[in-house]
TrEMBL record:
Tagged with keyword ATP-binding: no
Record key words, sorted: Biotin
Alphabetical list of Pfam families matching this protein: Biotin_lipoyl (PF00364)
Taxonomic source organism: Phialemonium thermophilum
UniProt name for this protein: Lipoyl-binding domain-containing protein
Boundaries of every Lipoyl-binding domain copy: 1-63
Length: 71
């Protein structure tokens, strides 16, 4: 199901805690907040506000002490 990026709640380089809001998306007229699966530093936002994304698309890339992970 495609979704639209309504708002990026973080910026690149920002440190976030597990459960912090990252991105607000809209799909089927419903807004959903995507939350951080981990504590870490946001390496890259994969999309800007207004972008349309497919299901399973990477939204945020993280840096952590051991490897880069994604949400």
């Amino acid at each position: 199901m495609p979704c639209k990026i309504l708002k990026n709640e973080v910026v690149e380089g920002q440190t976030v805690e597990k459960g912090a809001p990252l991105v607000v998306i809209e799909s089927m007229k419903m807004e959903t907040v995507i939350r951080s699966p981990q504590k870490g530093v946001v390496k890259k936002l994969a999309h800007k506000e207004g972008d349309i994304c497919k299901a399973g698309t990477v939204l945020v890339l993280f840096e952590d002490a051991t490897e880069t992970t994604e949400a």
